Every structure is written in C-alpha cells, then in structure tokens.
Amino acid sequence: MNIDENEFFKEITLRICGSLDIKAALSKVYDYIRNIMPLDNIYLAIHDDELGAIRFIAAVPNNSNLTEDTIIPLNEELWEITRALKHPMIKDIDNPLPFVQKMVEITKDEGNSSIIVPLHIDDTKLGTLALRALGNRRYNQDHLKLISIVTDPFTIALANALAHKDLMNLKDRLVDENQFLQNELTSKYHEDIIGSKSGLRNVMEMVSQVAQRNNTVLLLGETGVGKEVIANAIHYNSARKNQPFIKVNCGAIPEALIDTELFGHEKGAFTGATAMKRGRFERAEGGTIFLDEIGELPLQAQVRLLRVLQNRELERVGGSTPIPLNIRIIAATHKKLEDMVAEGGFREDLWFRLNVFPIYIPPLRNRKEDIPALARYFIEQKCREIGLHQTPPIEIGTLEKLANYSWPGNVRELQNVIERELIRFKTGKLTFSSITADRLEDRKFVRSQAPDLIPENLDVHTADYISQVLNYTGGKINGKGGAAEILGLKPSTLRSKMAKLDVRRK
C-alpha cells in the first residue's frame, strides 16, 4: 500500500473525534478506510468490569452477528487474557493462538479476518477497536501497521463518548429524581386534622408523643381510615419534616419488582439492568419512608427490610457493599399481622421490630362526631377539584343521615360518596339520596348482625377501643409499648377502666 501515514492519521482523527455521537463518527471512519483496505465491518467495544464481559457500543454497518449492545460474557481465563492484551493483532485462520481460536468460536466469526486494536488510557484497558473483512487472509502487516498509528485518536474518541454518555445518563437520572421527589414531596398534610380534638384525640396525642423521636411506628386500622394522613402528621411534626417523605404501597408493586423498587439494583444485576438504580429507601435518606400495606410484602423482601431495621443499612440487588441509611420507617396495615405470623405469611422477628409503637386508628363508625366536619371539608375540596364555582348548601337533616350510616369503607367511602353526589348535582341542596332507604337498611342489618361494631354509647365505644389496643399489644399493659402508654393513661387507671367496662385481656 502506498498511503501517506500523516494524511491517514489526520483524516482518521478528524472523523473519529469530530462528533460525540460515536456511531456517527465511526460511520465516517468506515467510509474512509474501506477505500484504502479490505473492510466489511468496524466495531468499538468496551470492557465492562461489573459484568465481566465485552460490550459492543457501536457497529458499522449494523448487519452482522455483532451489533450495538451485544454483550459477550467471558470466563475468568479469557477475561484476564483480553485485559492483558497490549498490542494490535491480526485474527484469522493463520493465527494459531488458542485465545484467538476461542474468541472466533465465541463471536461466531469463523472464516473471516479481523484486526484487533486494544485501546488503553495509561495502564487501564478502556476497550477494543475491531476491523473485520469477510474471508481468510484479508489483512497483512501493512494493514496492521497503518491501523496501529491511529490508536490514540480512537482511544480519545471512545473515552469522550463514554464520558458524554455518563453525563447524559446523570442528567436524565437527576431529572427523574427531581420529578420523583417533587411528586413524593407534594404535601397533603394539614396541621388541623379533622377529628384531632374529638374522635382522633387519642391518636393525635400518640402522634405528638412519637413525632419528635426516630423510632419505627406501626399504624393499624381498617382500610380507608386515614393511615396516610396520620403518617403525614408524624413526618411533618418531626425534625425530618424538611427531608424526603417517600410513600410506598407495598401491595401495588409486582412481586418480581419489589426488591429493586425498594432496595435498588446494581448495573448488570439481571437482564435489562443496564444502569445502577437507587431504590425508595435510598431516596428517603435523611427523611421518612411510609410502607403502606406492609402485610402485602413478600417474604424475601421482609428479610431485606429486617436488615434495614436491625442494622440501618441495605445492599442493592446484585451488590455486596452495605449502604448506611439514616431514615425513619412508618408502616401501616389493615391486616392482623400476628395472625399472619401464626400462619407463616409474615416473619415473627420483623413483626416484633415493627410493633415498637403501634397506633390504632378507629374506624369512622366509631367516631361519628367527626362525620359532619369531614363532610363539609370534602364538599369544599371536591367542588374545587371538579370545577364547581359555588359550594352547594346541605339539606337540613342530611348530616345526621350521613352520621347514621355505618361507612364500611370509612373515610375513603365518605369521600367517594361526596364526589359522586357533587357530580350528579344540578340545583338546589345536597341531599345524598344514595344514603337513604337501601343503605339505612344495610346499616340496620349490620347493627343486628354485629352490634359490637356500632357502639350504642360512649362506654361501649371506650371498651371497644381499649380492647383493640390490648389486642395489638398482645395484652401488655405496663411498660414501653404497653396499652397504658399508648392510651396515655396510668396503668392503674387503665385497669380501673377495664374492670368498670368489663374489658378482659386475651
């Protein structure tokens, strides 16, 4: 070949370093080199230390078995040999090295010729440039020498392209993190919680006791009673109120994704894990994570959560380095976890870790005095949401009608009934006709079938609440986490009330 080496170096450098789009740059190089020497394909690949594999990041033209994003895992012996390769070489039928023949088998490239050029920065193997021509003995030492003189431009171009890609990934990640945190940090917390001085008085007293501390809190109560509202109150009354408040519905995440969503994963941890991902726990660093429906957590995730609670650290899926955590955990469930423990559906050691400070939130039927205020609040809120410019008046007697209904769906059902009533509203006053004969009959049926669910007076209400708290403490009255502490009473006072109301420990 009669090629001016200086001219060749200049042309290659201008083409390969002329764009951060590595594939576009490689295409220009391909168009130039194929007029000088045999060339059917040209590749750039990097050595992925985390995967122990060669990853192809650009292929021109993209018409062979080795394409962009092709990953070739290597065993430990081949990995060390490729890492140690220092000088350009020809790979074809005349190269007897076992390493070369093995790579031909792996890449399914029998009967073809290649020039392999290792790309190094200092002593670090960055990647490989490969030129391929169909057929054997297509390259000679003149070709090898010519390609060898442009090793530096290809190395610089590859390093710049990888740095640019990392920067773009970081930018995308920061945008994603910002959007995620903006959604998570949008506060629905109102300082004046409806019922805080009436039906939720005991609950709010417990919130004030625990908010400024860092211990784990377990919120108990039926579906729809407002556990998230109480979790908000704990976080926004704590020293962590200006830090992230991450909410997770454990029942809404597919079991196959729960580990990576909560704890994150390392690059290459599984097929499709092309980048490191931080989980919800890491995103809550410095703040609070709210694990709603904790009873839906799969057993394998329970093991990881137990480690977080015990050691305040986690390991990402596919990782081995412990990551320290400074977070507060608030869990919530409508299930009886102690029954799940007995049935093998929930770990006993995790149950004990979570049940440090349980707060039982009574159902709406047990705090009927809160219903009128809740109804007025939701009416005003929903009017704004659906675009009603004037809040409709409420028909006389309607609030009493709402208070007399059993509300099996609790506050969430009340909210939905109000929204439906406002959507149907045309003129006049709100009557809540859907809460009439049929639902009142349902209420009478529920009362006759389960009178303990609808207290007839304050003593029955109080006895029911004490029983619920005793149930969740396992009958414990004295000491930390006992029923007396939860209820804000002296143990002797609680025992007197229990004797008066005939409440017995199980």
How is the secondary structure organized here?
Layout: H1 5-16, H2 22-33, E1 41-48, E2 53-60, E3 71-73, H3 76-84, E4 89-91, H4 98-106, E5 112-121, E6 124-134, H5 141-148, H6 151-185, H7 201-210, E7 217-220, H8 227-236, E8 245-249, H9 258-263, H10 280-283, E9 288-292, H11 299-311, E10 313-314, E11 323-324, E12 328-333, H12 337-343, H13 348-354, E13 358-360, H14 371-386, H15 398-403, H16 410-424, H17 437-449, H18 458-472, H19 483-487, H20 491-501
Helix pairs in contact: 1-2, 11-13, 14-16
| Percent in strands | 5-15%
Number of helices: 20
Structural class: alpha/beta
Fraction of residues in H or I helices: 40-55%
Termini separation: 96 Å
* Low-confidence runs of at least 5 consecutive residues: 440-456
* Assembly form of the protein: single chain
Q: In this structure, how is the largest beta sheet organized?
A: 6 strands, antiparallel
Report the principal-axis shape: elongated
Strand order of the largest sheet: 3-2-1-6-5-4
Radius of gyration: 34 Å
Give the overall pLDDT as a whole number: 84
The strand count comes to 13
Question: Would you kindly provide a written description of the structure presented here, covering whatever features stand out?
Answer:
- The protein has 506 residues and is of the alpha/beta class.
- Helices cover 44% and strands 14% of the residues.
- A 6-stranded antiparallel sheet has the order 3-2-1-6-5-4, sandwiched between helices. A 5-stranded parallel sheet has the order 8-9-12-7-13, sandwiched between helices. Strands 10-11 form a two-stranded antiparallel sheet.
- Strand 1 and strand 2 form a beta hairpin.
- Helix 1 packs antiparallel against helix 2.
- The longest helix has 35 residues.
- About 3% of the residues have low confidence.
